[in-house]
Write a structure and sequence with these properties.
single chain, alpha/beta, six-stranded parallel sheet
Length: about 190
């Protein structure tokens, strides 16, 4: 079994632009491909975990999330990088589409996305961790009993400055971006 890094998508791998309601709004962050390639080279399982409540809210169809994830895979391949799985939650309790408008176990900070990945991939949870740009990702890591690494891209800088100081749960490490977070993980694992 291999360790996994559960990585938030928007704001961590690609630019945070609010809801990605059109494929033209998807832009990979600098060095994201290099970071994931490093994880691949070091035998980590790479899992993308993302809340996509825009589906439940009727902002865009679920097919756009799938199309965006396909573009993500193609963009990463340019850096010889790949993800082993992409898991997302399309639900929200205040949504407008009945089939997606509900509370669920997969909406972060609940750990349903991690549980699903564990059931489909052979993951060494003892050596796994979470990376994200929101305090919500740190809470998600905590709920799964995993180290949570916060990046300062996306909402990270604001969450770190204005939200983290008022929370009991703190990031295990704070990195400028995904590449620096990955380098820290690899250093800890040696």
């Amino acid at each position: 079994m291999r360790p996994a890094v559960f990585i938030d998508r928007d704001g961590t791998i690609n630019e945070q632009r609010g809801y990605i309601n059109h494929i033209s709004r998807f832009v990979l962050l600098p060095n994201a491909g290099k970071a994931i390639s490093l994880l691949n080279e070091n035998n980590y399982i790479v899992v993308v975990t993302s809340n996509q409540s825009g589906v439940a809210r009727g902002y865009f169809p679920i097919e756009l999330v799938e199309e965006t994830n396909d573009v993500l895979r193609r963009e990463l391949a340019k850096d010889d990088a790949h993800v082993n799985g992409i898991y997302f939650c399309p639900h929200h309790p205040d949504g407008v589409l009945p089939e997606y408008s509900r509370g669920c176990s997969c909406r972060k900070p609940n750990i349903g996305l991690i549980q699903k990945a564990r059931s489909e991939l052979e993951i060494d949870m003892e050596r796994s961790c979470v990376i994200g740009d929101r305090w919500l990702d740190i809470e998600f890591a905590h709920n799964a009993d995993l180290p949570g690494i916060m990046v300062l891209t996306g909402y990270g800088r604001g969450d770190f400055e204005y939200i983290v100081p008022h929370k009991q749960i703190k990031p295990t490490f704070v990195a400028e971006d995904l590449l620096r977070a990955v380098k820290w993980i690899l250093k800890q694992d040696k």
